[in-house]
Structure formats: C-alpha cells, structure tokens
Amino acid sequence: GVYFSHPFWTQLRECRLSHTQLFAWILRTYHLSRSAGPTAARGAVNSPNSAVRNAFLKSAIEEYAHCEIYYKPVHDRFGLMKDWVTELLPLPSSLAFDQHMSVMAEDDWLAHTVSAYFQEYTAGFRENAFALYDRLEAGYGLGGFFQGWKDHIGYDVEQTHADDFLDLIAGSERVDKNDLLRSIRAVSSTVEFLIGSLDELASIDADVDLKTLRVSPALLAGKAAETTVIGGAALARSLLRAVGEEEIVELLAQHLNERLDRTKIDWIRNVCLSDKFLEGEALRALSYASDHEGIVAIGAVCEALQEKSSSSDRPGISAGGLALRNFVRESARSPSTFLFLLNLIRRISDTPANEAGNASLLCARQSKAVAQPAATLLSTVGLQFLELCTFAPGLWQRLGEQDIVVPAAS
Predict the structure, then answer these.
(1) How far apart are CA 294 and CA 285, in angstroms?
(2) pLDDT (tens digit, 9 = 90+) per residue, 35-62?
(3) What proportion of the chain, given as a percentage, has pLDDT over 90?
(4) Of 39, 191, 60, whose CA–CA distance to 107 is shortest?
(5) CA 34 to chain CA mean position, Å
(6) 352: pLDDT confidence band, cut at 50, 70 and 90?
(7) Which of 70, 101, 255, 298 could form a disulfide linkage to 286, CB 3.0–4.6 angstroms apart?
(8) Residue 80: which residues within 8 A CB-CB, separation 6 or more?
(9) Contact 336/367 with Cβ under 8 angstroms?
(10) In this structure, are residues 363 and 341 in contact, taking their beta carbons and an 8 Å threshold?
C-alpha cells in the first residue's frame, strides 16, 4: 500500500505533471523493462533448483526484448529519437533497484522471486491501468503511445508470469528461518528503491527542458547541451576532457566532498571500504580478469586483503548501503573499472595514508598499471556513483521488514 499510495500517482492520474515529468516516469518504466531479461537470466543461471531456474529461464526469454517491443519511449510529442533515449541514464533509485535485483538473482532466489511477483502482479490491475493510459494519452496528446503497454499487460496475463512466481513462493521448497528473514530484508530494500524512484520523479522541476533530462556523458560528447545528472554539463565535460584516470578521480572526489558533510563521507567509506566486503569483490573481479596486467593487479589486491587482519562485516546494512555495495559489486565484472571505482572511493573519503589500509592504497596504485576504459565510460560510472552517494544516506529509509507481506496461495 505504501508504494501505490505515494502522492506521485495522484499527480499522474490527474494529468498534473509537465511533459518532462511524465516522460521521466515513462523512462523509468523503460529502464525497469530493459533490466528484466538480464536479471531473470541471472536467476536462471544461479538459482539452486530446477523449478526456480526454469521459471526464470522462461521469464528471461519472454522479457528480454520487451523494452524494444512495448516500452521504447519514442513519440512525436516528445521529439526524441531512439538513439537518444537509449543513452539516457536511469534515475539513481532505478539504478539501485536494477542492481539489487541482479544481486538477489545470484544470491537469494526467494527474495528475487517475491520481488519479481510484486512487479508482475500489477497486471492484476489491468482495467485501472488501461483507464489511466487512456487518460494520459488524451491529456498529453500521446495518441496510441500506451498501446504497447496495454499489449504487454495482456502478454503477462497470457504467459502467467505472476502465477509462475506465486507457485514458487507457495511451493514445497523448505526455507530456513534465518534465510527467510534475510530474504524479507532484501525485498524490503527492493520496495524502498521503487518508492525512492517515485520520490525522485516527484522532485523533478516541472520547467526542466526535456532535452536535458538524464542526458549521459556519451550524449554530451555529441550534440547535447545540458544534463540534469549530478554536476550538470560542466562537470561531465570536465571529466570528458580530463587527461587520465587520476584527473577524473580528482574532479569527481572534489565535487562530492563539496556536497556532503564529513559524517556522510565517513559513512560511505565505512560501507564501501570494509575489508571483509572488499575481499569478496576483489576475488570476484579477479574471476573476470583475462589480460596479463589486469590479473596481476587484481591478484595483488586480493593477496593484500587476505594478509590483512580483518573483523567480520557488520550486519544490518541499510538500503542505501546496499545500493553502494551493489554498485561496487557490479563494477567487478570489469576489473579495470573496479580498480577505478576503488580509487575514487578512497579519494572521496580522503583517508590519510596511515589509516587507509594496504589493500585500498594498493587498489589506487594498481589501477594506474591497467589499461583504462574510455573516458566516457569512467565518467558515467563516476557520476552514477556520485548520485548514489548523494541520495543513499537519506532517500531510502521508508520501510521496515514488517511492511513486507509475502502473498499467500489462494
């Protein structure tokens, strides 16, 4: 009820949003659809039993192209082409949601299943959704735009997506009590990210030029003039002009250190530079390394973390902390990007050399020895991380475990 009672929905139903605000909501839905297939594929690969794997295999095959077939946010009324909208960056909460779903797909089949059910169950509000789409088309001059959305709801019902996930939840698979509580906590964070995206949508300035909304460094490297992404075009262009990784890191760190107080900076450091957490993610990065320099660099970080005495990681991390850790974890799929990000985190925290720990300092040194991705990629990674750091300490604190109810079988 917390999600659907958010005041943003009232503004949407009453057509009180500007075209830019409406498009931001449409873009959010596009990004959710775009991540559905890859996330389900992870569930199909990593889930512990064949029933769960088969359910997510079915979902992955059926969902992967829906961002193209049903949810592509292109219409004459918006005046944006496909090549533009596919380069737009997701809102921080949408990014946090996508990455959390991916992590759950690898680590927690039950939490992933419950979250997927929550998304698919919206097809149960079919008639109300159709009425809303008709109202929006009439109110904003978007004739025919939402036909794909309507078709997708019908497809979901026809393919029994929600029923597939409910069958898994109500099935015979036994779950340990502690594992169940862990899953409920993970689902709670998922819903917090969804609610956070509504908070972000509600806070968008109605007068913002649509052609600046969530414009990426890749677009700014071309014809785009401005962006609503943190730091605006000035910061993004400075990053794109930077000579080498160290200058990019310095520009990003300086910007965030000017925005956040010391308490929040220290919180980011404690969340992201925990030796226990880094140990697992450095090993993950090593597992993806393939070139000579990358293997040696990441391996040296793993060795340093193994040698350093470390206490166990603290329990009960917040949704904001999860968003930051998930971002670091996802970066490990590109070892050079992982090292860049660790260098950035160390520089943001401005940790004195005698307090930083051998492993985090080694990350900074080793990253210089590895061929770096293009400045556009590093700029995008850095700006997305800065946005998560800015929102994480306060935006995602809406729910507790008691607010999540797993549906019962009928």
Answers:
(1) 9
(2) 999 999 999 999 988 988 998 999 999 9
(3) 56
(4) 39
(5) 12
(6) very low
(7) 298
(8) 73, 74, 210, 211
(9) yes
(10) no
For residues 118 and 392, what is the distance between their CA atoms, to the nearest angstrom?
A: 23
Q: How far is CA 316 from the centre of its chain?
A: 20
**Structure tokens belonging to residue 42:** 């992870």
Crossing angle (nearest 10°) for helices 319-331 and 177-203: 90
Task: Decide: residue 177, CB within 10 A, 0-12 exposed, 13-18 middle, 19+ buried.
Answer: exposed
Element at 264 (helix H, strand E): helix 262-272
Task: Taking the CA atoms of 349, 373, 93 and 45 in sequence, report the sign of the dihedral they define.
Answer: negative
Are 341 and 328 a contacting pair, CB within 8 Å? yes
Helices 177-203 and 92-107, axial angle in degrees (round to 10): 160
CA nearest to 94, candidates 198, 18, 11: 198
* Pair of tokens at residue 334: 């590109």
- Over residues 360-386, the mean pLDDT reads 71
Looking at per-residue confidence, does 35 or 276 come out higher? 35
Q: What span, in angstroms and rounded, lies between the C-alpha atoms of 144 and 141?
A: 9
Q: Hey, what are 374's tokens?
A: 């293009």
What is the C-alpha to C-alpha distance for residues 258 and 392, in angstroms, rounded to an integer? 16
| CB half-sphere exposure, 291, CA atoms < 13 A | 10
For the chain, helix, strand, coil in percent to 5 are: 70, 0, 30
pLDDT at 235 over 90: yes
Token representation of residue 298: 């990441």
Question: Are the beta carbons of 234 and 225 closer than 8 angstroms?
Answer: no
Q: How far is CA 83 from CA 37, 156, 223, in A?
A: 20, 27, 12
pLDDT tens profile 290-311:
989 889 889 988 888 887 655 5
- Residue type (1 letter), 139: G
Burial class from Cβ neighbours inside 10 Å (0-12, 13-18, 19+) for residue 368 reads middle
d(CA 46, CA 5): 34
Whether the CB-CB separation of 57 and 44 falls below 8 Å is answered with yes
